[in-house]
Write a structure and sequence with these properties.
It contains 10 helices and 9 strands. With about 280 residues, the protein is of the alpha/beta class.
Amino acid sequence: MSTESCTVETSDGIKLHTRFFKPEDPKSNLAIIIVHPYSIMGGCQALMRGIAAGLAEKGYRAITFDMRGAGRSKGRPSLTGSSEILDVIAVCRWAVENTGADRILLVGSSAGAPIAGSAVDQVKEVVGYVSLGYPFGLTASILFGRHHKAILQSIKPKLFVMGTKDGFTSVKQLESKLKSAAGRVETQSNSPFKDKPNLSSKMQRELQLHSAEDNRMHCWSLRAGLDACNCSDCLPQENMFERTYNATQWMLPTVQVKEKRATVRTHGQMVTLINNFTEAFKLSR
């Protein structure tokens, strides 16, 4: 695996710092684009590096990027993530034009999940979607509620991964939301696609899956991504991440310092979930 840095320009002229994780032997024509958590609270692409590297090692083209106002990207972040939809669309188009991929899987973490979800049906090459801790909860919906309709009404395959101890959205809230999702919704605990079922074409189009991860909190995969990255680009953002989450403990008591002590095994689990989802739904060719 090798990594290349580049700049992607959005339709409104914002330049985004982007990283392309190139597999040594690409296994398909699928690119997996990973959208990081809320920029205003210190979210950056470094948090997703562990997952991206793991996917590249499995032969996928993986791409991370700093949304506007995060890391080395230009511009200013928006409060509700509305402007960042343009960022996702721009990176998708760049991937199709520059990486040899003609199919895209969007993966969003935390606030990156609703932002990515709003872009799913705006890019024809997007063939599936994975959310890691989608903030469907009441408080988070004040900021991100406008994004819900787009992903719930999309007929493209979707996987929602939610920790049973997520402080922003309970598993019950997620299941309630998914009742309005297009297609059939199925809930699996901990190990979706363990047997990698051979789904029919209709099932591949209609089945929306949810995985409840036992004893996991909202940001349980984030620290592992930072631990996998030691580059100078990410160190300032790591400090920002530490300060932001420490400072907001009194306001968001469910965001615990200990959840940032994730290990490499954590993002390894995410890589396995995404890989098995991709294979089960035959998203790559």
